[in-house]
Design goal:
Layout lengths: L2 H17 L4 H16 L8 H9 L6 H14 L2 H13 L5 H14 L5 H19 L3 H11 L2 H4 L4 H10 L3 H29 L12 H7 L4 H15 L5 H18 L5 H34 L2 H12 L3 H16 L4 H18 L4 H17 L5 H7 L7 H7 L1 H16 L2 H9 L4
Helix pairs in contact: 1-2, 2-15, 3-15, 4-14, 4-15, 5-6, 6-7, 6-8, 6-11, 7-8, 7-20, 8-20, 8-21, 10-18, 10-19, 11-19, 11-22, 11-23, 13-14, 15-18, 16-18, 17-18, 17-19, 18-19, 19-22
Length: 434
């Protein structure tokens, strides 16, 4: 059978399974194995079990559960409340100050979680009620958290970055370092937008009384532990002292010490933490295995090669191809989970980018940003629904409209880091080791 027919059957089967409500990972695995059994030579099935075993036991993937474990331990320490309180003292008196504090808190909490959803839940549960109690417009407050929560995807460690690194065999440590400056830049851009909006419409985002300098500096002791954890993890990776997996393990140890110091770690809590980690990790592992199975079919049936040739035959201009990729990610992000998009699209398009000599580390950050936009984009942007749980009196349609300016900020940011790639590549080009 021709490669075109096999490719069409593979993706139609996948999307039909999705439409039937089958989880993405299972749909990827089932459609791949079905095509292998029916349309590929009998020898092709021999690689299915090795793919399950090799990817399920990959050392690189150990980074994901370890960073998840670190995040779960940090969450139980109560550091979220302290983090938001500190940011409130430093930014609250500015126009839109509580919104700015929420963005800063999301950025810092994302630095120890790597997860958009975890960041949105942890900060949103505190910041949205606090902003509304202060007099913020409820829709605007919810939109702030819906947009800023996905900073957890961009600020390293990033689960999406790890996933991209594993799929494309790109240095995860370099992807982490490459995300630092863009993460800070987008945080500042969000805060600037909130400040300008609050200046134009002060009734929507009132300020809070100014804290004294002594109160501000005293509040910093509440966040020293999270800052130390960030420096421990990212510093060791940057200096080449440890791999990302080893740094994640050190981060877990650091998180345990913080939890013990705060007397927050009990046996019941440990059981809950490991149950959550096992569930989340299993889901991601199955997603990665599904990605490799689809990739195996694409390579075995020469689908990937022919698609690469077809795209390059259409245009060899990297800006045209990048623009098309951006549009594809944003469009798919409106309907499909961001991590699933990375797993589905990268096996197809990554060879195209390599043929155009596009740096895979730079591309990794771009993919993370595109995934972040997908987390926010209506109608399926997951962070909107998570944030809306803390403003149940506000129609989700209102929140969808309110996040559009934030999506505009993210698109401007995407254009900036595309035109000025050194904003991404400066740190990884100066790091040691891994």
């Amino acid at each position: 059978m021709e490669w075109e027919a096999i490719g069409i059957i593979l993706f139609i089967t996948f999307f039909v399974l999705l439409a039937l409500g089958i989880p993405v990972a299972i749909a990827m695995i089932a459609s791949s194995i079905g095509v292998i059994l029916i349309f590929l030579p009998s020898a092709a099935i021999n690689q299915v079990v090795p793919i399950f075993f090799q990817q399920g036991t990959s050392f690189s993937l150990l980074t994901i559960p370890l960073f998840m474990l670190m995040a779960e331990i940090v969450k139980i320490t109560g550091i979220t409340e302290e983090l938001f309180s500190t940011m409130k003292k430093w930014f609250g008196h500015f126009p839109g100050g509580l919104g700015m504090a929420s963005v800063a808190a999301c950025s810092m909490f994302g630095a120890v979680t790597g997860s958009s959803i975890a960041t949105t839940v942890a900060i949103g549960s505190i910041a949205i009620p606090e902003m509304r109690k202060t007099g913020y417009n409820g829709t605007f407050a919810t939109a702030i958290i819906a947009a800023a929560g996905p900073l957890g995807t961009l600020i390293p460690p990033s689960n999406t970055g790890i996933l991209y690194g594993v799929i494309t065999e790109t240095s995860i440590g370099k992807i982490f370092m490459a995300s630092v400056i863009p993460g800070i830049l987008l945080t500042v851009m969000f805060m600037a937008y909130i400040a300008v909006y609050a200046l134009l419409r002060p009734e929507v985002a009132p300020s809070v009384p100014k804290s004294s300098w002594s109160e501000r500096f005293n509040s910093l002791k509440n966040v020293t532990s999270i800052i130390a954890l960030m420096i421990l993890v990212l510093g060791f990776i940057y200096l080449g002292v440890s791999t990302p997996s080893e740094a994640a393990a050190l981060g877990c140890i650091g998180a345990v010490f913080i939890a013990l110091f705060k007397r927050k770690l009990g046996l019941g809590m440990i059981k809950e933490i490991f149950t959550n980690i096992a569930t989340s990790t299993s889901t991601i592992m199955m997603l990665i295995i599904g990605t490799y199975l689809i990739g195996y079919v694409l390579i075995y049936a020469d689908i990937a090669t022919n698609i690469t040739a077809g795209i390059l035959g259409f245009s060899k201009n990297k800006w045209v191809i990048l623009g098309g990729t951006y549009a594809l990610f944003i469009l798919l992000g409106m309907f499909i989970d961001a991590m699933a998009i990375v797993c589905l699209v990268m096996p197809l398009l990554f060879p195209v980018f390599l043929s155009l000599s596009i740096d895979p580390v730079w591309l990794g950050v771009i993919v993370i940003v595109l995934s972040m936009i997908g987390f926010v984009s209506p109608p399926v942007g997951l962070s909107m629904y998570v944030a809306s749980d803390y403003s149940k009196d506000i129609p989700i349609g209102n929140v969808m409209i309110a996040v559009l300016p934030f999506i505009g900020v993210m698109i401007i940011f995407l254009i900036v880091i595309t035109i000025f790639p050194e904003t991404i590549m400066w740190l990884p080009n100066h790091m040691r080791g891994f």
